[in-house]
C-alpha cells in the first residue's frame, strides 16, 4: 500500500473501533446479554496503552459518543465513561506495559467496572437504574478476553507497522 | 507547541483535556435529559450510523436465510397448516369482537365518555441489533416519513411491547415495557384494580409497585392497559402476575409479572395509532360523515337485529341528545 504512515495508522485504528462498535450492537440471545464484554473499552484500553500520544481522552470521548448514538442512550453518557477510562489508561500506560498479561487483565476488569458503575450512576440520576448486578459480569468477561484481544491487536499493530 | 503572535500555546495536558471533555459530556447530558434539545442533532447522527447497524444485523439475517433454506419446505408447509387451522378460530372471535366493540361504543356514548381506540395499525420490521447493557430497547425500521410519533404504542400479536422513544428519519427506537425507564398504567382484568407496571431491566419481568397487602390481586391475574396515561388504548394485555411476596416489613406488596408480548422473539411488531373517539367517524364532523356512515350502520345492525333490539332503538336518537349534552356540560 502506498498510503502515508499517518493515514494507515488512522485507518487501522478507526477500523478496529468500527469492529468494536459493530460487536457491541451485534445481537445475541437475550440471556447472554449480561455477559457481553465491553468491546469498545477493550480496544480503547489497548490503543491508549500502546500509542498514548495518538489515542487518548479525545478518541475515547468520540467513540463513547458514537456508542451513545448507536445505543440511543443519553448523549454524553458513554462519552464521559469512555473518556474517563481512556484518561486512566493513558495516565498509567507505562505501568500497564510493564505488567504481566494477567495483571493487565485485572486492571482491565477494574477499568470496565469503573466504566459500568459510572454509567449506572448516571442512569440512576436520570431515573432509569436497573435493579441488577449486571454491571459486574461484563467486566469479568472482558478480563478473560483481554489476553487474546491483546495478542490480536498487537499483531495487527506490528503487521500494519502502526506507531 | 504552537507559536501564536509571540505567545506560546501548549497542547493541553491529558488531565485538562479530560476535564474539559467531561464538562462537555455533562452539558450534553443535561441538554439531552432535561430539555430534549438535541432531538434534531441526534436524529441526524443516527442516520450517519445506520450502516453500522445494518452491518451488525447481517449475521442474523444470513443465519435466518440459511435456516430457511435448510428447513425450507417442511417448516413452511407446517406453518401454512397451522395458520390455516388458526384462521377460522380467529375470524370467529373477531365476529364477536366487532359486535362487542360496537356495543361498547354505544354504551360509552350514553355515558358521555370517550376512550382511545386503535383504528390504524401498521406492521413494522425490527432491526436485529442488541440494546445497551442495562436497557431494553429495539430498533424499528420505520421513521418520521411513516408517521411515527413519540410515545406511540408498539404491540405484537399477544400484547403490549413498549412505546416509541425516539423517532429518526429512517428508523426509530422503542423502549420495551421491561426497560428500567418504562412505567405503564395497568389494571387487573378480573376486577379493574389499577396499578403501574414498572420495567426493571430483566428480559422477562415487570414489577407491579405500590399495591398494599389488602389489594385483590392473585398469581395468574391478567393485567391489561388501563388507558389512563393517555398514550396507550385501554384493554391491551400487558402481563400475567407471576409471584406475589407479602413481606410484613414492607409497606407494599412485591409483585412480579411476566409480559405476555413476545419481547425477544418476533422480528415484527405492530405500530398503532390510537384516536380519542367514541364512534370513530361521528364525533368529528357529524354533518359530513353521517351519510357514508349510515349505510355501514345498517349493515352492522342487520346482523344483530334479534340480539340488540333494545340497543338499536336509542341509536339514532342517542346521537342527537349526546350533542347538546356535550355542549351544555362545560
What does this structure look like?
Chain A is mostly helical and 163 residues long. Chain A contains seven helices and no strands. Chain A has one domain (5-159): Arp2/3 complex 21 kDa subunit ARPC3. The longest helix of chain A is centred in the last third of the chain and has 25 residues, at 101-125. The mean pLDDT of chain A is 89. Chain B is α+β, with helices and mostly antiparallel strands and 330 residues long. Chain B is built from six helices and 14 strands. Classes of the chains: A mainly alpha (163), B alpha+beta (330).
Considering the chains and any ligands shown, give keywords for the structure.
heterodimer; A: 163 residues; mainly alpha; Arp2/3 complex 21 kDa subunit ARPC3; 72% helix; globular; B: 330 residues; alpha+beta; Thrombin, subunit H; six-stranded antiparallel barrel; 6 helices; 14 strands; 40% helix; 25% strand
Task: Summarize the helices and strands and which ones pair or pack.
The complex is a heterodimer of chains A (163) and B (330).
Chain A: H1 5-25, H2 39-50, H3 57-71, H4 77-91, H5 93-98, H6 101-125, H7 137-159
Chain B: E1 2-4, E2 7-9, H1 14-35, H2 39-48, H3 50-111, E3 115-127, E4 137-140, E5 153-155, E6 160-167, E7 172-176, E8 183-188, E9 194-199, E10 206-209, E11 222-225, E12 237-245, E13 254-259, E14 268-277, H4 286-303, H5 309-312, H6 314-328
Antiparallel strand pairs in B: 1-2, 3-4, 3-14, 4-7, 5-6, 5-14, 6-7, 8-9, 8-11, 9-10, 10-13, 11-12, 12-13
Q: How many domains comprise the coordinates of chain A?
A: 1
Q: What's the number of structural domains of chain B?
A: 3
Shape assignment of chain A = globular
Helix and strand element order of chain B = EEHHHEEEEEEEEEEEEHHH
The quaternary organization reads as heterodimer
Strand content of chain B: 25-35%
Q: What is the CA-atom radius of gyration of chain B, in angstroms?
A: 26 Å
Identify low-pLDDT runs of chain A: none
- Trace the largest sheet of chain B across and list its strands: 3-4-7-6-5-14
CATH architecture of chain A: Orthogonal Bundle
Global shape of chain B: globular
**CATH-defined fold name of chain A:** Arp2/3 complex 21 kDa subunit ARPC3
Amino acid at each position: 500500500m502506498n498510503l502515508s504512515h499517518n493515514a494507515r495508522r488512522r485507518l487501522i485504528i478507526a477500523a478496529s473501533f468500527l469492529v468494536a462498535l459493530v460487536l457491541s450492537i451485534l445481537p445475541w440471545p437475550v440471556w447472554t446479554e449480561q455477559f457481553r464484554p465491553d468491546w469498545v473499552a477493550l480496544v480503547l484500553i489497548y490503543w491508549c496503552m500502546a500509542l498514548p500520544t495518538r489515542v487518548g481522552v479525545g478518541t475515547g470521548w468520540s467513540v463513547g459518543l458514537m456508542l451513545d448514538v448507536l445505543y440511543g442512550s443519553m448523549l454524553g453518557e458513554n462519552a464521559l465513561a469512555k473518556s474517563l477510562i481512556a484518561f486512566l489508561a493513558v495516565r498509567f500506560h507505562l505501568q500497564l506495559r510493564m505488567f504481566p498479561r494477567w495483571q493487565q487483565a485485572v486492571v482491565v476488569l477494574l477499568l470496565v467496572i469503573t466504566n459500568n458503575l459510572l454509567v449506572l450512576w448516571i442512569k440512576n440520576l436520570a431515573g432509569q437504574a436497573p435493579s441488577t448486578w449486571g454491571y459486574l459480569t461484563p467486566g469479568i468477561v472482558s478480563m478473560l478476553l483481554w489476553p487474546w484481544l491483546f495478542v490480536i491487536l498487537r499483531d495487527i499493530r506490528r503487521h500494519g507497522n502502526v506507531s | 507547541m504552537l507559536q501564536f503572535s509571540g505567545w506560546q500555546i501548549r497542547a493541553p495536558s491529558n488531565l485538562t483535556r479530560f476535564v474539559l471533555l467531561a464538562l462537555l459530556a455533562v452539558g450534553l447530558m443535561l441538554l439531552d435529559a432535561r430539555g430534549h434539545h438535541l432531538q434534531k442533532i441526534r436524529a441526524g447522527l443516527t442516520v450517519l450510523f445506520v450502516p453500522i447497524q445494518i452491518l451488525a444485523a447481517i449475521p442474523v439475517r444470513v443465519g435466518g436465510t440459511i435456516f430457511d433454506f435448510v428447513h425450507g419446505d417442511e417448516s413452511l408447509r407446517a406453518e401454512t397448516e397451522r395458520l390455516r387451522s388458526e384462521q377460522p378460530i380467529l375470524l370467529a372471535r373477531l365476529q364477536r369482537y366487532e359486535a362487542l366493540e360496537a356495543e361498547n361504543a354505544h354504551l360509552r356514548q350514553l355515558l358521555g365518555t370517550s376512550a382511545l381506540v386503535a383504528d390504524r395499525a401498521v406492521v413494522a420490521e425490527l432491526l436485529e441489533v442488541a440494546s445497551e447493557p442495562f436497557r431494553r430497547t429495539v430498533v424499528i425500521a420505520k421513521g418520521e416519513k411513516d408517521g411515527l410519533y413519540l410515545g406511540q404504542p408498539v404491540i405484537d400479536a399477544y400484547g403490549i411491547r413498549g412505546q416509541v422513544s425516539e423517532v429518526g428519519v429512517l428508523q426509530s427506537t422503542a423502549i420495551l415495557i421491561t426497560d428500567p425507564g418504562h412505567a405503564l398504567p395497568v389494571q387487573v382484568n378480573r376486577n379493574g384494580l389499577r396499578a403501574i407496571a414498572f420495567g426493571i431491566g430483566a428480559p422477562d419481568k415487570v414489577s407491579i409497585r405500590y399495591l398494599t397487602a389488602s389489594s385483590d390481586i392473585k398469581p395468574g391475574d391478567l393485567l391489561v392497559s388501563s388507558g389512563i396515561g393517555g398514550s396507550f388504548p385501554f384493554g391491551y394485555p400487558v402481563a400475567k402476575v407471576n409471584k406475589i411476596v407479602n413481606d410484613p416489613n414492607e409497606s407494599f406488596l412485591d409483585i412480579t409479572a411476566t409480559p405476555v408480548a413476545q419481547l425477544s422473539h418476533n422480528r415484527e411488531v405492530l405500530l398503532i395509532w390510537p384516536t380519542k373517539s367514541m364512534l370513530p367517524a361521528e364525533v368529528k364532523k357529524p354533518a359530513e360523515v353521517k351519510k357514508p356512515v349510515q349505510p355501514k350502520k345498517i349493515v352492522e345492525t342487520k346482523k344483530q337485529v334479534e340480539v340488540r333490539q333494545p340497543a338499536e332503538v336509542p341509536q339514532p336518537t342517542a346521537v342527537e341528545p349526546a350533542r347538546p349534552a356535550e355542549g351544555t356540560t362545560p
